[in-house]
Amino acid sequence: MNDKLAWIDTVRAHGMENMLGAALDALEPFGALAAQALWVLQPGLGLLLPRAALEDVAHALEEPGGIERLRASLFED
Fold it and tell me: What is 12-26 written as a DSSP string?
């Protein structure tokens, strides 16, 4: 596992991979717009969620195929 995506292990440990997967499904059609919203909201959301996770999701939304790579990391065994 990539150290940059180490927060995914925490998501899995708490059994929240399906919830994150659903959030990725909901954000994917909005791509760059959702990524920009995450960048703008990151200072506030960073109080509740790991900033590395927010950055990874924002980058994935901006890159072609990024959500698929993030989802594959989330659901790999």
Answer: HHTT-HHHHHHHHHH
| pLDDT tens sequence across 13-34 | 899 989 988 988 888 888 889 8
Closest listed residue to residue 68, CA positions, set 26, 3, 29, 24? 24
Contact 46, 56 (CB under 8 A): no
The residue segments making up the domain with residue 14 are 3-75
Packing angle of the helix pair 66-75, 51-62 (nearest 10 deg) = 130
Domain count for the chain: 1
- Six-digit token string for 70: 């993030």
Interatomic CA distance for residues 41 and 74, integer angstroms: 23
Rounded to the nearest angstrom, the gap between the alpha carbon of residue 24 and the centroid of all alpha carbons in its chain is 7
